[in-house]
Specification:
Chain lengths: 471, 471
């Protein structure tokens, strides 16, 4: 019997690549074409056939590839043939297009059928007026559940949680637990759960029993004996980033959510957290580049508006750098080689500063960098900046010498390079640390400050040294 | 009985912030101090007491905060008081420091006790010589398992998987399944599993039954009747990014891994994937900034070396931009205001290009952008660039007019701005698309190309137009 549990000795023979990516792409293209054909023909049966053989997430992917007009046609044609789960997979413009064109009753039914967490996510995407109209169509109990979830702050554990769960008192035995679960009708009670919550008479969690342990334990034993005490719990108002951090750090699969009085009101499962974790690093990436959304389905007007704000701020810093240059216009007039070389110093400072800043922003986000090790990291960055500044100074000094045959000019640019790289390294680490201490998201605000510093110092050091030494 | 399954109506009363972050920080600082004290005193019991009350992940965090000397002292003092799970949570320099100082037998024992996936991850961090010595100390069966896992390509499903799993034939009943699981000794057979794999006589998976469904089904029913057919499977040689993509897209908790002949050889659980997903967006972020590692525990020499390469490449592009400026040195000599203003055009192009490029790199990574919608996205980016170029041209034109009182100069910079922002937008979208098509990671290579384009075009457009129009 034991080989049932152990896998056979694996083969280590090399396996040829299966061209899976190419196949996937071709298949997707074909499905898209079939979908467009069905929409053009107004063929509801063909549409249903396409949907039936695909996972809701794949249907959602196809819908994202359609344009707004096609999405609306699809909504009108498909109606309730569109699974609720497909709507739950969508967001932004594609979802709005569908919801606008779908009969309100269909949307309300879909929201009613989804798990609470997915339903809340869908409702969040709608505007308040739509939310209200959809909620008004739901059964009272369901509506109250959803309304109370929506009453929690955005991005909180309360919004992420689902409400169906299995909770039992600690004196129940394994046998009682199983008998109870078996006694439920098939369409009653929770699905996709991984733990049984053990609660006290006030419905406060005192432990959890993972299902695999229930299955491996004899009937007569009490849940108390096999539970993991001190379960990891989240409060309804806790930020989803905290939740994601703990899930990731402690390798959680699911965890309970409690209200202010400590009562169990829901559970969060890791599949919802996976999205949050992916989003979190992505948000940092986007924020550092000055974009608020990676959503390629956003309308042009919205994209332009959000990106313009960032560009305008950066225009301010560019103009500031220009005023530094204008301080030295007489110097440049005497020696135009300075104008040729000056962007090098500023640009290298910008690159070095961005390197340090990016590492610092991530290390703060993952909580690897904190007040406890900040000084060690600062010292290290200073060393790295000095070393790289010195190395680059040599390279740029030689290039300048070969180009302009002026040893003093070469010395000036080398010195300016060291100065700017050290300043860049320090700005790259201090700016995020200070912003974090001030409770400002370092990802959003750091790069403007860092590039301002590296531009201003870069031009000032190079042109200033030139004015001092060369003229 | 039903209230056991449904949570009570939640309270929506506001909950005061609990100062959790501050508390955490203070607590961590205190633990660190206790740990340092214990190390200084050489107090093994105190050390053990600190470890005992913490989760292995928290112990690992503390160890990361120590310096190399302290880590070695800790290894010598703690010996086998250090839980294997703590080692599994560490990587890079902190792990190396410990392994160097720990007796080889202790490391071997730790590797022996860990789940296969964690053991492989730990071994991966060691150099080959160390790996060999540790493996030589293991029992034959365990050694062979680990060696065959290590034979799979790096970052493949084969390395991520654990080998203990529960597989049963489809004709077994729920009752048989439970009885079998109960019959296992407590220290025998798999833990932390969420599904039963249903396999054919050749050990090829034909379905999965989630444990919650086993618990909700009566004893006499066959597993065949309640299994999910067509289980999501991964091949041992599949890249972990593919695995992570599917886990995230299809909301998987666990999935089987099969060898080239389709036999089940292991399983991957979502908690290992959570790390991969977090890392993936982070890798893009770091690659775009020209850093290979966000590891703040890396030694100075390594950090300097990897960052220097990137800076050197960027020095090349900066020099290229300078040669463009040098083409116009006569023009600048006649009108030094050009030198003052020219960084503005180049820098705004760089910022706009980075925005577009960042979105494109992420959209490619998340597979939202592909050949199927590339043209739509390109058209959209072109529109956004034109709009933002026009808006910024107006702003910069007015600023220049107020500053230099020269309408023609103002017109030149405005025109150059539009040109460079459009080129930046196009470079920002085409460079990642082309690199992706050539199977080069767009995150690693895009920004050098994009900034080269925006620098060269920025200087060329502004100075060229100035030479044409103003002189």
């Amino acid at each position: 019997m034991s080989e049932i549990l152990t896998s056979p000795t694996p083969e280590t023979a090399p396996v040829e690549p299966d061209g899976r990516d190419e196949d996937d792409r071709a298949q997707r293209a074909q499905q898209l074409q079939q979908l467009r054909q069905a929409l053009e023909d107004g063929d509801r049966e063909a549409l249903r056939a396409i949907f039936d053989e695909l996972h809701p997430a794949d249907v959602a992917d196809l819908i994202e590839l359609l344009n707004a007009e096609e999405r609306k046609r699809l909504a009108r044609l498909a109606g309730d043939a569109l699974e609720p789960e497909v709507l739950a997979e969508l967001e932004g413009a594609p979802l709005e297009n569908l919801v606008e064109a779908l009969p309100e009753g269909v949307v309300a039914e879909a929201v009613g059928e989804l798990d609470t967490d997915d339903a809340v996510q869908l409702l969040e995407e709608l505007d308040e007026e739509e939310q209200r109209r959809i909620l008004a169509r739901m059964a009272r109990k369901r509506r109250e559940e959803l309304e109370s979830s929506l009453a929690y702050p955005e991005d909180s554990a309360g919004r992420l949680m689902r409400r169906d769960l299995v909770a039992m008192p600690e004196f129940w035995t394994v046998g009682q637990a199983i008998d109870f679960l078996r006694s439920l009708d098939e369409d009653e009670g929770p699905e996709e759960f991984y733990d049984i919550f053990i609660v006290d008479p006030h419905f406060r969690p005192v432990g959890t029993v993972p299902l695999w342990r229930v299955l491996r334990t004899r009937r007569h034993r009490a849940l108390r004996e096999i539970m993991d005490p001190d379960p990891q719990l989240f409060r309804v108002d806790q930020d989803q980033e905290d939740v994601a951090y703990d899930f990731s750090k402690y390798h959680l699969i699911s965890a309970g959510v409690v209200d202010a009085s400590g009562r169990l009101v829901g559970r969060i499962t890791v599949d919802d957290i996976v999205d949050v974790i992916g989003e979190e690093a992505e948000e940092d990436l986007l924020a550092l580049a000055g974009v608020s959304e990676a959503d390629i389905n956003q309308p042009v007007g919205e994209i332009t508006r959000t990106r313009f704000v960032w560009l305008l701020v950066n225009l301010g810093t560019a103009i500031l750098a220009s005023t530094v240059i204008s301080l030295f216009d007489a110097t440049i007039e005497q020696m135009v080689a300075l104008a040729v070389l000056m962007p090098i110093v500023a640009s290298m400072g910008g690159n070095a500063g961005t390197q340090t800043m990016t590492v610092a922003v991530r290390a703060l986000a993952t909580r690897e960098l904190s007040a406890l090790n900040a000084w060690r990291v600062v010292r290290k960055e200073l060393m790295v900046s000095l070393l790289n500044g010195a190395l680059l100074a040599v390279v740029v000094g030689i290039v300048t010498l070969l180009w302009f045959h002026d040893p003093m000019l070469s010395a000036v640019i080398a010195m300016a390079m060291v100065v700017n790289l050290v300043v860049a390294g320090l700005a790259g680490i201090f700016v995020p640390l200070v912003l974090d201490r001030l409770d400002i998201d370092p990802a959003v605000a750091s790069s403007v400050f860092v590039t301002t510093v590296t531009d201003v110092v870069g031009f000032f050091a190079f042109l200033g040294l030139a004015a001092l030494i060369l003229l």
